[in-house]
Design goal:
Layout lengths: L1 E4 L7 H13 L3 E4 L6 H8 L4 E4 L6 H4 L7 E4 L9 H7 L2 E3 L6 H16 L2 H9 L16 E5 L3 H12 L3 E5 L6 H7 L2 E2 L2 H7 L2 E4 L13 H6 L4 E5 L8 H10 L2 E6 L20 E3 L8 H19 L9
Parallel strand pairs: 1-2, 1-3, 3-4, 4-5, 6-7, 6-9, 7-8, 9-10, 10-11, 11-12
Helix pairs in contact: 1-12, 5-7
Length: 318
Amino acid sequence: MKIVLLEPLGITEEKLSALVQPLLNEGHTFTALPKNSAQDALISSAEDADVLVIGNMPLPGEVIAKCARLQFISIAFTGFDHVDIEQCRKQGIAVSNASGYANAAVAEATIGMMISTMRRFKETEQRCRAGGTKNGLVGPLLTGKTVGVVGTGAIGSAVIKLLNAFGCRVLGYSPSDKSPEEVRKIGYEKVSFQELLAESDVVTLHCPLNDSTRGLIGAAEIGMMKDGAYLFNLARGPIVDSHALAEALNSGKLAGAGVDVYEVEPPLPQDHPLLHAKNIVTLPHIAWYSEQSLELRAEIAFENIRQWMAGNQQNIVV
């Protein structure tokens, strides 16, 4: 089979070679390409592949439709909304993701962003560099706060366990069912979405992007939140209405926010509303981005290929 990697995975050549060699030993071919998201280039690169490996670059249906030989896509990422899954279903293409590779990284980043935003590290550093002091830039502790976690899957659960270490009261909401024993073991109180918004000092999002979560947090939902609350989005950009969030920050309805994901991948247009909002930490989609995560996602992506070839598909999306 012809295996094509459509974008670099951020690992060393030595690591990539070690992952690919078992497939070469079995008689398969492998090609690693530089990232080029232009549609014509994607079609040229992918049209005769049996297996594709990608990270988080978009793979539209128009490209997939041109890939007559394609049988399997291994996504070296947790999210898969950047791939036209319906087109894959139409063509009978199996798809797996790298679920779990960044659980610890995103959980750590969430806590770091909460503390950085609430304690106003960005502003105090700027003040320090300008020869100023901390005066007037005091912020609250995370310890003891009521924190609402939207999405209590693997990443949300990892965040909850860290929040428990800070002595937080943790509320959790997820449309998927968890038994009372699971909820107790993870360490949160299961509540409705409306209760979570109304009672939380801090709301953090860790749900997937799908039809039910797109636009989940808009002006109406922000209006349900406490005055002076904080909102953090390290899930997917379209879950939150950026204009509504910017307005809430600029009006003082929310005391602060931290955002790592947007409607488009960074670099962002300079007129993006969140780049000009008050009291916000904006990061260029780095929550998952650690040395260990890069290696682990590559390992999972190639193990997905081996397992699929053996008839034991894992991390199934399609």
